[in-house]
Amino acid sequence: MSRTSPNISSDTAAPVAVTVGALPGSRKVYARPAERPDLRVPFREIALSDPSLEPVRVYDTSGPYTDDAAAIDLAAGAPCLRAPWLAERGLETVAGRAVRPEDNGGASGERLVPRCPAERTILRGRAGAPVTQLELARAGIVTPEMAFVAHRENLCREAAAAEAGARLADGERFGAAIPDFVTPEFVRDEVARGRAIIPANVNHPELEPMAIGRNFLVKINANIGNSAVTSSVAEEVEKMVWAIRWGADTVMDLSTGRNIHNIRSWIIRNSPVPIGTVPIYQALEKVGGDPLKLDWEVFKDTLIEQAEQGVDYMTIHAGVRLAHVPLTAHRVTGVVSRGGSIMARWCLAAHRESFLYERFEEICDILRAYDVSFSLGDGLRPGSVADANDAAQFAELETLGELTTIAWDKGCQVMIEGPGHVPMHKIEANMKKQLEACGEAPFYTLGPLTTDIAPGYDHITSGIGAAMIGWFGCAMLCYVTPKEHLGLPDRDDVKTGVITYKLAAHAADLAKGHPLARIRDDALSQARFAFRWEDQFNLSLDPDTARAFHDETLPKEAHKVAHFCSMCGPKFCSMKISQDIRAEVQAFAAAEEGMRDKAREFVEGGGALYVPAPGETGDPVT
Amino acid sequence: MSRTSPNISSDTAAPVAVTVGALPGSRKVYARPAERPDLRVPFREIALSDPSLEPVRVYDTSGPYTDDAAAIDLAAGAPCLRAPWLAERGLETVAGRAVRPEDNGGASGERLVPRCPAERTILRGRAGAPVTQLELARAGIVTPEMAFVAHRENLCREAAAAEAGARLADGERFGAAIPDFVTPEFVRDEVARGRAIIPANVNHPELEPMAIGRNFLVKINANIGNSAVTSSVAEEVEKMVWAIRWGADTVMDLSTGRNIHNIRSWIIRNSPVPIGTVPIYQALEKVGGDPLKLDWEVFKDTLIEQAEQGVDYMTIHAGVRLAHVPLTAHRVTGVVSRGGSIMARWCLAAHRESFLYERFEEICDILRAYDVSFSLGDGLRPGSVADANDAAQFAELETLGELTTIAWDKGCQVMIEGPGHVPMHKIEANMKKQLEACGEAPFYTLGPLTTDIAPGYDHITSGIGAAMIGWFGCAMLCYVTPKEHLGLPDRDDVKTGVITYKLAAHAADLAKGHPLARIRDDALSQARFAFRWEDQFNLSLDPDTARAFHDETLPKEAHKVAHFCSMCGPKFCSMKISQDIRAEVQAFAAAEEGMRDKAREFVEGGGALYVPAPGETGDPVT
């Protein structure tokens, strides 16, 4: 049952509470891999009402908040499970950059949100020694992060894999190389090749590591963040906890306005998932909102500030080059990326090449030192179906490919951001071009939205595109909420966006023939067929909504075992009738072996009627 | 503005009221094709706030209810626009079958809903003379229905077509043969070939004709209907009006329980869209709910009863043969079609071949006489991803192909129902197999749902599959609401289902490169880019929701012209910044022709920086 955490100590004004407690029918379990008994890999176990059935284990992003045994103390931050691993990595401890008033947009007095009091030692890699997961992987080192990821991706289902392998391996993978079983060495190899990243800043010890790559489960990102117009720190921290409760694999904090630094401190210190940011937003705040006042110094300062806080990946719009900007002049919707438009404006007004592009190697050096992964931003992504796959978009993508090579040479982990608004017939080309241009670096797309005509429903217009591009090979899908284009998402919108993207990512995993993806589908469908209503609710992505919808018309406890629902009523329930059919067919099969062969013969031959077993009737369905 | 119609006369107890009034910013218009000035083809015209822009015309399914000039009288029924056409068709007038108590499930006294008092002459075709649209098409006759459809599909946009043709023709059509311009002769030819149907019972004069076929706009169906457990006649009639208000192209009345006949009379007499039914449901009610008591006589009686009322298409599960039933024995979810399970149960219990299969030619003769189209039911569709594309499903599909040929020989219009639950990688095979097995008869699928794990969100799991199969060639998509698997949809669920399927169908049209489909996307995106908020709302599929979402955070009138929304706030609005960029780029372009060529040279050459026009700066974004 979800509930609200108790208030944290009164001397920290915000945030006060987040949603905690296990999901219905579920409990948190931790697995200790045989080869790495020091690791505690979290899963969620969904109990089934039929005692003959094993609980169903599912991938779990929700951190300590759904662990009924965990004490949640937001002021102290989440447990630092990576601290012992990081202690062995030969990192240097640094004093860290002092926080300045402009980091919080000059907020002071009552308008200044307090910083999260949880203090962490600030770490940084040394030159010449491997620090990033990519450098470590290339050095042949299987990090604890890689072992954790391998175990997490397998869902501890060795036995199920052996049993289910043949049954499930029927997907279409478009060149992806998904193994039947994920080993730590496989993870190392994928990271070393740049085909996967493990976003894991050395200053984010609270992180439960995860991988983004097309040979792993498809991941989803939820954006949170206030805007200058609305929302508070308490809301944003709760949005993070809420987003991971429903399955967000990473969270991007896109806050603008005041208190950016301090809000982020609460989010990172309490986040078990990688946190991404777009540093140019904060840099712009530091110069009073005028893109023309941006320069390398303020941007560099912001990178270091955020890297020291523990941001795991950063969107850098270094692909928006001066020469690309005129290519957008005849677009229906111009430049629709916030970061992209800021940089385009800067380039054009300053009559200069982008400083992000010119200083890219220096950016790499900074990000490498903390193992901040690049999310190379698609500043020129299409904002309407009219602009999809145009010259501006693909010119930038080529540049991102060039930058990927540089970042890899510098030892940095890289993923590539993608669109946007793309009609269905142009989606596959995006995936193919990205793989070619960017050397198979993971792709991370926003949707794409497959039509422009449904504001208010863009979680759906984009969920269609997201499922498809996930199938084609996209590694992470950035959610879109129902409020897209209309306003800042609230808590309900975040949930709707996350659930929509979870189902899209899962549909992609199924279509790729991901080993074991179908276990949950089958468990739910078996529960449905057997009228185990509670199991059907609990196995669903959103048990609360499923139960509420059912109970709108049939609220009584007795209806939780009823062999019908209000959709068809008792006489017309196909599942009920089908159970009767099954009993009859099985009785017949027992009486006469080979019935199915006969049936097949019948179909092929178009011949004589099938002769039933004697006495084979059933009660009418009442 | 929507409002509720006044109560109808008090001597008819139900229904009392439906939603009427134009959609926001819209008005109903009627076009008179030059070649057929007697036709009044309805459209919706969305006015734009920029006086230099033409209103946008959209396909309109909503009938008189959105025409502010129309007087709505539910007891009198909708206007009979087809009456003069039908009068010229040489049909015979029949007395009609007398209504019997069992037609309404034996309801009497207060429990008996009154029949709709609107009386219509009951018509029937004669043997030997063409009566169905298929027979007329084969005879070379372009019916008024065909001319109406042609004009409706073109959206009267001859000029726009000429202008936009090259820009838009970039889809992937998978063998569909969509013309740039739809002529009445094209419609006739498609109907004659069986590639399209115009469901149009001769006893449904209120119908505004529409076509279902893969060379036309993709259509959607909304299911309504009470179950034995819940819902009333007033709700059901309002659901029909509500569903077509948001864009349902056809409506299926799946009512079970009491009062089926009389509820249907209200629905058909007031419906401008084709009404579909599943006659076996009512037949089962007539025999007290016991599938084993079903026989040809009660089914035949039901066909005639419903055909005389004006049902436009009927789902007939004649493909569920005795020999197919054992093929479902090892399925995860058995038989999940209500009609399919009833017939499977009957076959197995009676140890006999399905009477629907054995009597199929007789069924054809009845349906032909009223031009009721077949919707050949997929009684064995998969109810879980585990069961997708299995032997039972495809054995039935082969049978449906065989039945299609028989029905065509008998002069009947035919479409084919399809699944169901299908993971993405198995969807295209469904479409291909259907086209092959059924001679290109239109396909009509339920979703398909691409995963089983999201009850409460199955409009989305299925919207993904629906968009894809629509793209591949499916002609009509049967909606799934958020309540699927959980309960009977209410009015809100109907709307959510319809909007989701409208956007899926539109995404499919876009991907097919349907001429002019993109006009609405472009108009909306242009409005978005120009901060014409009211236009953005009004051009969307659901203006009420789009406006409400926007107004949650920025309710003031002044915000309807603001150059930002609460999502990003004023400083971070990429559209705003992008407008500034555009102004600068255009100023530059005016100063120096060939700038874009230079930009391209730059990208290709990777060389010198672009030299801007003098004085090219802009105000900071504030």
Automatic annotation (TrEMBL), chains A, B:
Binds 1 [4Fe-4S] cluster per subunit. The cluster is coordinated with 3 cysteines and an exchangeable S-adenosyl-L-methionine. GO terms for molecular function: 4 iron, 4 sulfur cluster binding; phosphomethylpyrimidine synthase activity; zinc ion binding. One of its GO terms (cellular component) is cytosol. Its cofactor is [4Fe-4S] cluster. Substrate binds at N223, M252, Y281, H317, S337, R338, G339, D378, G379, L380, R381, E417, Y444. It catalyses: 5-amino-1-(5-phospho-beta-D-ribosyl)imidazole + S-adenosyl-L-methionine = 4-amino-2-methyl-5-(phosphooxymethyl)pyrimidine + CO + 5'-deoxyadenosine + formate + L-methionine + 3 H(+). Pfam families: ThiC-associated, ThiC_Rad_SAM. Its EC number is 4.1.99.17. The keyword Metal-binding applies. Pathway: Cofactor biosynthesis; thiamine diphosphate biosynthesis. Zn(2+) binds at H421, H485. InterPro entries: ThiC, ThiC-associated_dom, ThiC/Bza_core_dom, ThiC/BzaA/B. Residues 23-90 form the ThiC-associated domain. HAMAP family: ThiC. Belongs to the ThiC family. This is Phosphomethylpyrimidine synthase. It comes from Salinarimonas ramus.
